[in-house]
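Work Package 4 report. The design task specified in the project plan requires that, given a folded chain encoded as structure tokens, an amino acid be chosen for each position. We show below one input record used in the internal validation round.
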């Protein structure tokens, strides 16, 4: 039963001890990483290989960056970057094939301060993702990562706290809803339809994290054929309490090799 996870590491080299500890304790089969914050040549591929994973990555110095890891094998890269804007130099999308699974790793723009140029870029990027995603619906596909969008009020501990933030703006939520309306299935919600589940918390000035700031904005959207095989889903919340953690926790799903039932 393949296990697929997504994790915004918030600096792959600075948080490498956290990443390696998590990989060792969980043994996920496919792992998508976002916000690498490192250039192509500084990606810690040797440490990741030593942990038992092959990798492809799309780096960018100091900002953004995405990677796809596969346990015991090398992902086969299919695409880097979304079509629709040849002038976009941000490293935010990477796609690979692992056995008969297509994996898209996404780091969607945050969009703050909003409104403004960064929010406009977020919406344009999101629209490119929605358009391109149509071509992947017929395959066994998971599009996972940090979408920087909180889809509904249940996805925030205190929704009113985020009304002025781009991740909660109606335009962001509408773009996510449009993508789901195409046939993509929010895997976490398929397993936990009414539960408050969170993948991000702000850093606390006293160390640790502010539990009242919880948001769910790291998502695993799966194609219809893959949605029928989802067995379980969750968040590795404990990583948020480790030493020098990311502000995100990994989200994951279990899928069956074949359609069950």
């Amino acid at each position: 039963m393949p296990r697929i996870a997504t994790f915004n590491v918030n600096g792959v080299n600075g948080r490498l001890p956290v990443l390696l500890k998590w990989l060792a304790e969980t043994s996920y089969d496919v792992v998508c990483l976002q916000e690498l914050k490192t250039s192509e040549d500084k990606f810690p591929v040797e440490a990741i290989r030593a942990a038992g994973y092959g990798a492809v990555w799309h780096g960018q110095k100091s900002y953004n960056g995405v990677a796809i890891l596969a346990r015991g094998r090398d992902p086969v890269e299919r695409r880097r970057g979304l079509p629709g804007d040849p002038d976009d130099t941000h490293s935010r999308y990477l796609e690979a094939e692992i056995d008969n699974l297509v994996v898209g790793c996404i780091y969607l723009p945050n969009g703050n301060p909003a409104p403004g140029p960064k929010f406009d870029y977020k919406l344009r990027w999101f629209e490119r993702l929605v358009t391109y995603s149509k071509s992947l619906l017929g395959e066994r596909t998971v599009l996972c990562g940090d979408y920087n969008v909180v889809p509904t009020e249940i996805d925030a501990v205190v929704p009113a706290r985020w009304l002025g933030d781009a991740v909660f703006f109606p335009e962001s939520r509408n773009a996510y809803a449009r993508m789901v309306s195409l046939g993509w299935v929010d895997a976490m919600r398929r397993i936990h339809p009414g539960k408050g589940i969170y993948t991000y918390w702000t850093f606390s000035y006293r160390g640790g994290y502010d539990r009242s700031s919880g948001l769910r904005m790291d998502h695993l959207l799966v194609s219809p054929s893959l949605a029928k095989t989802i067995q379980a889903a969750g968040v590795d919340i404990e990583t948020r309490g480790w030493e020098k953690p990311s502000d995100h926790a990994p989200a994951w799903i279990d899928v069956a090799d074949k359609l069950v039932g």
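The radius of gyration is 17 Å. Validation will be extended to a larger panel in the next phase.
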